[in-house]
Amino acid sequence: MTKDDFSHEMDIELDPQIAEGEYANLVIISHSPSEFVLDFAGILPGLPKPKVRSRIILAPEHAKRLLLTLQENISNYEAVNGHISLSPTPAEEAKMAMSLRPGEA
Question: d(Cα 49, Cα 96) in Å, to the nearest integer?
Answer without folding.
Answer: 25
